[in-house]
Amino acid sequence: MLKGKTALVTGSTSGIGLGIAKALAAQGAHVVLNGFGDVEAPRAEVLAAAAGNGARVGYHGADMSRPSEIEAMFDYCRAEFGPVDILVNNAGIQHVANIEDFPVERWDSIIAINLSSAFHTTRLALPAMKAANWGRIINLASVHGLVASAQKAAYVAAKHGIVGLTKVTALENATSGITCNAICPGWVLTPLVQKQVDAKAATLGISNEEATRLLLGEKEPSMQFTTPEELGALAVFFCSAAANNVRGVAWNMDGGWAAQ
Questions:
Q1: Which of the four, 126, 167, 237, 242, has the lowest number of CB atoms within 10 Å?
Q2: Segments making up each domain of the chain, as ranges
Q3: Which of 59, 155, 225, 238 is catalytic?
Q4: Any catalytic annotation for residue 59?
């Protein structure tokens, strides 16, 4: 479905971003990965997902808090794969503290990576998308783009901002072939979340299964994690012709979290 398209997925060397990258590659899109840590293993996973359909996989290690590095990443995409057709803004970090105790530098980093980076990638992607009259911008917002949790001031502020940026981008391009939508997951079973479950089990001296129930029971009525594969399938839908008129939505996949 996406053969010949180029997709840039930020924060895609693990977790949600990797799941989306694999789903897009499986549809034939060339994928540019971005993130820290091991690169070869996620690259191999994305190539395997492509299953010989001709999709190629690149990587750029841009620090998403630095606009100059984001610009360099777009230069790399154009040189290696052509203009970015599908932009997935997934890069994000987290810190937990009460507002009066929140380190200023942590606030600045979270806003830069979780919100400002999406503005910079969007402004850089739009000219080529407008020239082609086709593009897909998918912003990973989180359920915290819709509701709040205590001790997550910067994260919640950034994710609410992502939902607002999504709506503005969609409205400014409403009569074109460019769509912009946000995905708002609840708890997603990624390696990072698994570490939280393991830590809760160790701290409370309970089983992993009980720690999982406690974590989910706090917020998620379905009592089940969303998976990166499910989020990847939603991203593929947003890229499909069936979603041509899905514009500016904040689509929560949160097991009923925001419905409470």
A1: 242
A2: 6-188+226-259, 189-225
A3: 155
A4: no
Average pLDDT (212-238) is: 96
Statement: 6-188+226-259 belongs to CATH 3.90.550.10: no
CA-CA distance, 10 to 91, in Å (whole number)?
5
In the prediction, which pLDDT does 83 show? 98
259, with CB counted inside 10 A (0-12, 13-18, 19+), is: exposed
pLDDT above 80: residue 163: yes
Please answer whether residues 150 and 156 qualify as being in contact, where contact means their C-beta atoms are separated by less than 8 angstroms.
no
Single pTM value for the model? 0.96
- The 10s digit of each residue's pLDDT in 140-151 is 999 999 999 999
Q: How confident is the model at residue 196 (pLDDT cuts 50, 70, 90)?
A: confident
